Request: fold
Amino acid sequence: MAQASADMPYFINPSVNCKQSKKIEAYDHAMTELLALLEGESDLIVIMSSINCILKTHFNYYYWVGFYISDGQKLKVGPYQGTLGCLDISIGRGVCGRVAATGKTIIVDDVHALDQGKDHIACDPNSQSEIVVPVMNSEGNLIAVFDVDSSVKGSFDEIDQQYLEHIMSVFFTERKHSTNLINHL
Reply:
């Protein structure tokens, strides 16, 4: 497996943190756009791809954003935007794996302070902080985790958690979907 480079890729801009008032405003705009764009949409891949695009467009502290889809035993990279993501993650391993195992959101201010390889899986050394949110279906079963990384430490807080949990609930838990996500793996 290739070692990730510490150089920022030419097509990625470094993250820039923002004030809480700007976060709230941006999340409100993003949610309005998502609701209009995805009205009546039931295909999970389309929904995931659209959420990634809209959120990455609105937040300049989002370095990597994407979904890891659960097959019940591990997480497989799904729709994302950013540098190459880990292809698969064992349930319970790393931040994404722990969220999949517990069903609870985790915010990490400094990913490099974690035990590398066990508590954190470094797919890109430019990632400094992250938030991972569980994605449940309408029956309460885990279908994926939503992972956002920043190239700046301390980018995520309770505002991100509240809004991202709400977005995942609105578009996955509260909706019926026509596509079996596992068939896409």
